[in-house]
Amino acid sequence: MRTALLAAAACAIAIGVAAGQANKPASGELPDWSGVWQMVGPTVFDRASVQPQNGRAGDPGVREFPPLTDEYEAIYRKNIERIKAGTFPDPISVCGVPHGFPRIMNVPDVYEFAVTAAATYVLAENGPGIARIYTDGRKHPPAEELWGTYTGASIGHWEGDTLVFETRGLKESRDNDVIIDRTGLVLSDAARVTTRLRKASDTMLEAVMVIEDAKALKAPWKVTKQYRKMPAGTWAWDYGCAENNRNPISGSGKTLTIGPNGKPLDKNTE
Amino acid sequence: MTFTRVLAAAALCAAVTVPLAAHHSAAMFDDEKVVELNGTIKEMQWTNPHIWIQVVVDNQGQKTEWSVEGGSPNTLSRNGWRSNTFKFGDPVTVRVNPMKDGTAAGQFIGAKFKETGKTIGRWE
After folding, report:
1. Cα–Cα separations (whole angstroms), residue A16 to A22, A71, A133
2. Does a structural domain hold residue A25?
3. pTM to 2 decimals?
4. In this predicted complex, what is the ipTM?
C-alpha cells in the first residue's frame, strides 16, 4: 500500500513538473514584463491601413481597410455614416462594459502585464479591462459550453519568450455594443484571434494579432500593436468610469454633455 | 462677445489640440475652432473618466459658467497635473475647442495662470 502511494505521488509530481515546463519559456524562467506600459500611437486599431494617414478614430471619414466581407463592409460603411452624423456612441461610454478583445490591446492610458506560470493577465488601466490568458494546460471549452463574451476565452503557451494565445468565444456586435475601435469596426461571433506577445526590446512589448472571422473577413487580418515601457516607478491607477460620467448617450446615439447642475448642456438632446 | 476670443484657423487648432484619450465620441466638439476664456476657477472635478474645470467668465457683470472637459486624472497625473492644479478663485485664461452648438462647454487645450504666468497643457 505504502509503495503504491509513493508511486502515485511521484507520478503526480512528474506530471506537474512536465506540465509546468511546457508552460514556461525555453530559458526555464518566465519573462520579465514588469512595469507600466503605454500603447504607442493613437487608438486606431490598424494604423497600417488607416485613411487618411494619421486619422484619429472617431473623426468623420476616418477608416481602416481590413479584408471585410461584403456584409461587414456594408455594416462598417453604415457605422461610418453614423459617425459623420454624430450618432455613433462608443459602447464604453456607459461605463459598465469591458472593451473586449481585441480592443483591449488598443486602449489609451497604461497597461500592466502580469506573467505567472499558470496564466498571464493583461491589465488595462482604462477599463474595466482585464484579459486572462491561461497557460496551465487547459483547453478551450467545447463549443456548447462557450458563449459570446466581450473578452472571450484565451488559451496560451510559450514559444521561447513569446506568449502565443488564441482567443475564442467573442461576443457578436449587436447594435454596436462591442467595437474594435471608434472608426466603427466590428467583428462577428465567429472571430478567432491568434496573438503573439513578446518583448521586442527592453523598452518595448509587441503584440502581433492575426484575426480570422468566417463571417466578417475574407482573409486573415494581421495587426501589430506596440507598448512602450514607462519610467520606473510609474503608477497605474484605479479607473472608476462611473465616478463622474458627464457624457451619457441619448436615445438616438448622440453623446451628451452634462452641466454642473446635472442637466444636459446640449441644445438638442435627441 | 468680448469675453471670448476666437483664435480660429484650422492650422493653428491642429497644432494645439490635445487628444483627450476620451471614453466617448468627441463629435460634439469643434476642433476647427479655439475659444479663449478669461475667467476664474469655480471648481475642478478631479474625477474619472474625465476631469472637469468649471470656469466663470464675467462679461461686464454677466457671468457665464463654462464646463471644460479634460483627460483622465490617471493620465494627467503622470503628466504633472495634481488634484489641486486649478484652485477656487484662480484667475486663468483657458483655451478650449468649444461645443459645436454654441453651448458654454468645450474640450481643454491649455491654460495660463494669470498670477504666476505659468501654463499647463498646450500653450503656444
Report:
1. 10, 47, 19
2. no
3. 0.85
4. 0.80
